[in-house]
Amino acid sequence: MMRRVNIRNPFGSQRIIDESLIREHLALERTRLANERTLLSYTQASLYFLLGGLALLQLKKYEDLKYIGYLALIFSGLFLTIGIWRYISLNRKMKKLLRPDKSRDKKEKKEPTGENQR
Q: From CA 60, how far away is CA 13, in angstroms rounded?
């Protein structure tokens, strides 16, 4: 059973909002923010690998570490690519979820809304 929430409008008219729609909206917003945090984490790791790789390439005494430096540079590009790819793919999935559901729109048109009732 869905619970309806009455939100008091200071301008006079009452508006009834479905609680499940609020939960769905907030869940999608949390997912969007988590997606952005994940992209920033991948970018941060990529920058660490980049700085570490450049530092290892600058060492003159330890020529054997140059290969590890190049490997760190490759990982840097790989992490950045994977992070951007994951961000874009999740954004596309979320856009598909946010498209209006035609069956829900038809039900809402048939059912009377609570705006005219007092």
A: 75
